[in-house]
Amino acid sequence: MQVFKTFRDIPAAAQGAVIVIGNFDGVHRGHRTLIDLARAKAKELNAPVGVLTFEPHPRALFRPDDPVFRLTPEAIKERQLEQAGVDILYSLKFDWDFASLSPQQFIDDVLRAGLNPAHIIVGQDFCFGQLRKGTTQTLIDQGLPVTAIDKVVDEDGDDVSSSAIRQELRFGNIEAANALLGWDWEMEGVVVQGDQRGRTIGFPTANVHLGDTLHPAYGIYATYVKIVEDGPDAPWLPAATNIGIRPMFELQVGQIESYIFDFNRDIYGKTLRIKPVKRLRGEAKFESLEALIAQIEQDCVEARKILT
Questions:
Q1: Does 56 sit behind a cis peptide bond, omega within 30 degrees of 0 on the bond before it?
Q2: Where does the chain have alpha helices with state H?
Q3: Which of 34, 56, 193, 266 is most buried, with most CB under 10 Å away?
Q4: pLDDT, tens digit, 9 for 90 and up, residues 144-162
């Protein structure tokens, strides 16, 4: 997948794509329906499949004090879009200058002069430009070739949306979230040095900050983890993972702490992908260190049963 971080001076070979426009947080089943539609249209027009998206998510610019909400930070979003079959990704910087573009400027500068799309595919509620004044109808009125589709629902008629997925994750409902996503949700970050308390009680953990990834329900999870630097064919390793603030020791910021089973490597500075499978329990504060250790041992037994 080719990736461009600007709409200016795009080479001719990377123009003329069938482009889907959106934020694509989650790259969920609804987004993939749009991409599938783009692929069919691209085959008809003998054109590549493109996605036009924005970084950071516009909500982060307009509502910076909101709780962290992203399902797929940039690296994960790009990986999922590539796996969905996107040929060209235009990931444009969303700052106040870009947000101030009028709908006409967006059409003239970004679309016509920059990307020159063969066809545009958007959701029916798509809006763009300063104060979101541009709509799907604006594109059509400007003579651009556009297809708009309604929202996607699941087998029960429920809305497939990033908001619905966030809700499931905030309750720790991993299976339900994955069903809406159409892929297994994961988190990613660099392993950092913690207080090494886990090592002193026999459960050394790989610690990763949640960063701008949505905080799922805090608690203990059966997870798989993968070390990115080991390559795309590296194994997914079973682990018991705490996501949260460790009430016994009162961390100030929620983080991921994975105890990887039967593992003994120094992976500080490595990038870890963490894939929750099932939430075992919520976080708890124990009366003693011995009680905590006994519970961790029980968590590990339960996690192994689920994962192996």
A1: yes
A2: 29-45, 58-62, 74-83, 96-99, 103-105, 136-141, 162-170, 174-181, 197-200, 289-307
A3: 34
A4: 999 998 876 555 555 689 9
Q: How far is it, in rounded angstroms, from Cα 275 to Cα 222?
A: 9
- Nearest to 255, CA basis, from 195, 298, 180: 195
pTM over 0.70: yes
Distance CA 260, CA 279 (A): 16
Q: What is the set of domains in the chain, with CATH numbers?
A: 2-149 (3.40.50.620), 186-307 (2.40.30.30)
Higher pLDDT, 273 or 202: 273
| Residue 59 CB burial class (10 angstroms; 0-12, 13-18, ≥19) | middle
86, pLDDT greater than 60: yes
Of the chain, the end-to-end C-alpha distance in Å amounts to 34
How do residues 36-47 score in pLDDT, each as one tens digit? 999 999 999 999
Q: Which two tokens stand for residue 203?
A: 């459960």
Contact 109, 72 (CB under 8 A): no
Closest C-alpha among 76, 26, 24, 28 to residue 180: 28
